[in-house]
Amino acid sequence: MAKDFTSRAKDYSKWYNELVVKADLAENSDVRGSMVIKPYGYAIWEKMQAQLDKMFKETGHENAYFPLLIPKSYLSKEAAHVEGFAKECAVVTHYRLKLAEDGKTVVVDPDAKLEEELIIRPTSETIIWNSYKKWIQSYRDLPILINQWANVVRWEMRTRLFLRTSEFLWQEGHTAHATSQEAVAEAEQMLHVYGDFAENFMAMPVLKGLKSPSERFAGALETYCIEAMMQDGKALQAGTSHFLGQNFAKAFDVKFATKEGTQEYVWATSWGVSTRLMGALVMTHSDDNGLVLPPKLAPIHVVIVPIYRNEEQLAAVSEVALKLKKELEAKGLTVKFDNRDTHKPGWKFAHYEFKGVPVRLAIGARDLENGTLEVARRDTLSKETVKQTEVVDYVSELMDKIQENLFLRANQYRIENTHQVDTWDEFVEIINSEKGGFVEAHWDGTAETEEKIKNLTKATIRCIPLDALEEQGKCILTGNPSSKRVVFAKAY
Amino acid sequence: MAKDFTSRAKDYSKWYNELVVKADLAENSDVRGSMVIKPYGYAIWEKMQAQLDKMFKETGHENAYFPLLIPKSYLSKEAAHVEGFAKECAVVTHYRLKLAEDGKTVVVDPDAKLEEELIIRPTSETIIWNSYKKWIQSYRDLPILINQWANVVRWEMRTRLFLRTSEFLWQEGHTAHATSQEAVAEAEQMLHVYGDFAENFMAMPVLKGLKSPSERFAGALETYCIEAMMQDGKALQAGTSHFLGQNFAKAFDVKFATKEGTQEYVWATSWGVSTRLMGALVMTHSDDNGLVLPPKLAPIHVVIVPIYRNEEQLAAVSEVALKLKKELEAKGLTVKFDNRDTHKPGWKFAHYEFKGVPVRLAIGARDLENGTLEVARRDTLSKETVKQTEVVDYVSELMDKIQENLFLRANQYRIENTHQVDTWDEFVEIINSEKGGFVEAHWDGTAETEEKIKNLTKATIRCIPLDALEEQGKCILTGNPSSKRVVFAKAY
Predict the structure, then answer these.
(1) Which of A55, A157, A230, A345 has the greatest number of CB atoms lying within 10 Å of its CB?
(2) What is the radius of gyration, based on Cα positions, of chain A?
(3) Is the pLDDT of residue B1 over 70?
(4) Residue A76 to residue B105, Cβ atoms within 8 A
(5) Those residues with Cβ within 8 angstroms of residue B270's Cβ, 6 or more apart along the chain or in another chain
């Protein structure tokens, strides 16, 4: 399986593209920039969705659904928003096709032109705040805490599976509050939910911070983000949470009567993560043998491969295997017993290794005699012989160990590839090195300097970490004073 | 709550529209034909999704995701399909907006015209079979059993919340098989899954049958359906399952190598249910006091309303209420304790009645003295006094009773409003009567007669029931011979 597979060292980007396709996660469709998410990839996304949805509900949010199509004029109601999204909108102009003159193909029916064009949502602030206007009259109607699971379209010229596609799946939370403080607290809460999910379920360490003004969401007063480091040292923005101030309330004229009887504009947040997380997951843990999945998001936890020479041996092995399968399932694990006779054990070993199944159990004739079996870990590629009587507890505990090991390994990698830098030369050297990584450096706080650094090195400010220390320093480019370090990196 | 609410007898259609909006299930958006599904409505849809998804997985299906946008030319590859859907397609012609000359609004950028227009999927057969072509080479690749949860758009001129909207949410199963028999068995299996879901979860009895040729899905050789009777005697098609033969395999040139080494076209099915089920659910059970929900799909099973005169009484009642809430939750029930002091008990009673919460518990000071409380059923509107020590088991069992009662009541209604008819006069009398209902009558099997009956009475053939008896008879319109009765009704 892994033989026609590019290694990370040889070409990281190619490695990723091949891995996503060969592991049956997704593939490009014939529709420009749109992907097909295949069942194995979608099963991982479903696990992500289920966990995130649980966390959203535990923090008091409800799901709802708003229209896919947005009148063009809505977009221009918020000035920064239209500036940010107009250039990448899919536009619906007609509502009917008709038979062409050849009698076979179809053409757009010119009589079915829409009076006002509709755009496919690139994000739903405008259509949702247009509804909130009807829902909010008084402080009693607040807060509104709503999430939506949806598809969105942003026309992209250069696309990559999961990381950047014209259509992608995501969730977008949209909340409305009576005070600025409450909205800020909500935006921060959701950032922490994302951080918790990334670290404890994806086993992916993240930096939590604020975006610089020039990297903010179009229409936000403040954008919080989580940033992860991939194995090529590049940063990947994995989730964002925006404090929108009163911008959308003003654009859609959404006021509420306060307890005191005055009329005020409503305060807003929005926050989202997308199928991009799938790309982050793949790039954080996987290796030259294929996918590596944290147990908490793996569609299959354990695969059992029988090793046999004849029907009789298969029958004896199967009996043990099926008993184990049942016991492991009772522990909440998903177990696959692959007894197909069309493929050899060696092929199966490589196959499930490539698919990132966390644990493989192999049982052969000798194991039956000895009351043992072989347990192989996907994360370390190590094997151990374990007694059959102990294997259920052993494997069950192994899941936690693998989950933890993946996090620690990724965390160690990030630590090793994060550098504090105080001079421009050092900055350039590290940013341009093969290993790349995060660079903690002082910045004078101006958009101009940020832009210059980007033009000179392709590095951007990934975030101003929430836990950055107050520290007097000098901007690495201009030497102007700075009070805290920000994190620079090249990014996806 | 129910005071500004139209009764079913007065205007059934108005009753439905008001109920959907006033019970916070959904509302019309400003985007023509698109609805906003509000949190309470969406919570019911999520329960439907979760159960259906479980049933699909239990029958061996996996979820995946295919692109929203379909090249226009795909549609015309299957002749009947394009005929059925071209007239209602939303067409994307451009991928960018730009600032208008006024410097404020946006206009479509004429330079961003697509070479080939894209349509928003009205259903996904074409895009999916375009992928299956790449996935299927040999019999070993079959069957493919995939389901997709998605939004689709079919441009509708006259829309009604849930029942007919331009955008709706649904699931669409698309399977590929090596033989015709296997595909037919799949289509029938999924019909039974839908029937099981409708009857055992929605508590909605359904007829299972085949559509007449003229009512088939565009591109199908056979369309199976479930049909339910609403309280105005009209039929509602609640789900369809199609045997597509080799039509899409031929259109997209999808062949497979058989075991014997020959090349054959693949056999297909597709099957779907949509947010239309929400409309069916509402119209099957609800009454002049508002929504009535079967416990298996109710977002809240039990509401506890405290009745008190002072803080001290509230504290005492709350203690009992919170203990009960915990115990009921341990039984798997969702319980709301509404202790808001902004609303009176009478208002709360009416509110939760309108929202269709299956059971209401009221606890007052006298109940504390007597160790009792009041249990009210939403389905029968009856009340009983029950001992606190017995109430958890009582309520838990009540859920099953209510679920069963709703089914039996709806079934009784359907029986009473289903008529066997042998003459045209009787047929017209019943179809045109206020009560309407299902009419079992003989039909000569021709599309011409079907069309005439429709034009004369607005009644259509809802289905040819799978369990229809072989019986010699004469077509009610033409007198020509017929071998079984079909079911006629006016329909949504």
Answers:
(1) A230
(2) 26
(3) no
(4) yes
(5) B123, B125, B172, B173, B174, B175, B217, B220, B241, B242, B244
Instruction: Select the more confidently predicted residue: B2 or A88.
Output: A88
The pLDDT assigned to A2 comes to: 58
Domains of chain A, residue spans: 2-72+127-285, 300-398, 418-489
The answer for A256, left when phi > 0, alpha when psi is -120 to 50, beta otherwise, is beta
pLDDT at A1 over 90: no
pLDDT tens per residue, range A308-335: 999 999 999 999 999 999 999 999 999 9
User: Above 60 in pLDDT, residue A33?
Assistant: yes
* Chain B hits for A72, Cβ within 8 Å: 97, 106, 108
Q: Is the CB of B71 less than 8 angstroms away from the CB of A29? A: no
- A193-214 pLDDT tens trace: 999 999 999 999 999 999 999 9
| Statement: residue B335 has pLDDT above 80 | yes
**ipTM for the assembly:** 0.96
Cβ within 8 Å, pair A87-B96: yes
Which ranges in B223-308 belong to alpha helices (H)?
247-251, 276-285
**CATH architecture under which domain A2-72+127-285 falls:** 2-Layer Sandwich (3.30)
DSSP state of A214: G
Among A40, A83, A105, A106, most B C-beta atoms within 10 A, so best to mutate, is A106
pLDDT category, B84, cuts 50, 70, 90?
A: confident
Residue type at position A209:
G
Nearest CA in chain A to B100: A76
Closest chain A residue to B113 measured between Cα atoms?
A91
| Across A78-82, A341-345, A457-461, least confident range | A78-82
Q: What digits encode the pLDDT tens for the residues A249-297?
A: 999 999 999 999 999 999 999 999 999 999 999 999 999 999 999 999 9
CATH 3.40.50.2300 fits B2-285, yes or no: no
Which residues of chain B have a CB within 8 Å of the CB of A140? Answer: 342
Interface test with B, best of A25, A31, A340 (most B CBs within 10 A): A31
Between helices A39-58 and A180-200, what is the axis angle to 10°? 140
**Which distant-in-sequence residues (6+ apart) come within 8 Å of B118 by Cβ?**
A31, A90, B69, B70, B71, B72, B91, B92
Judged on CB neighbours under 10 Å (0-12, 13-18, 19+), B189 is middle
Candidate from B34, B73, B95 with C-beta closest to A67: B34
Residues of B in contact with A64 (CB under 8 A): 36-39, 42
**Domain B302-398 belongs to what topology?**
Rossmann fold (3.40.50)
Instruction: For residue B96, give how far its alpha carbon lies from the nearest alpha carbon of chain A (Å).
Output: 5
Q: Which of A165, A163, A167, A170 is nearest to A52 (CA)?
A: A170
Q: Is the pLDDT of residue A78 over 70?
A: yes
The minimum CA-CA distance between A271 and chain B, rounded to whole Å, is 18
Taking the whole predicted model, whether its pTM rises above 0.95 is answered as: yes
Side-chain-side CA neighbours of A188 within 13 Å: the count stands at 8
Of B34, B68, B72, the CB nearest to A97: B72
* Residue A204 pLDDT: 98
A300-398 has which fold? Answer: Rossmann fold (3.40.50)
> Per the CB < 8 Å rule, is A96 touching B91?
yes
Preferred mutation among B69, B75, B88, B175 to probe A, highest tally of A CBs within 10 A: B69
Residues of chain B in contact with residue A25, where contact means CB-CB under 8 angstroms, are: none
Cβ of B43 and A30 within 8 Å? no
Instruction: Over range A158-170, report the average pLDDT.
Output: 96
What is the Cα–Cα distance from B314 to B364, expressed in whole angstroms?
9
Best B49, B61, B63, B68 member to test A by mutation, with max A CBs in 10 Å, is B68
- CATH class of this structure's domain B418-489: alpha beta
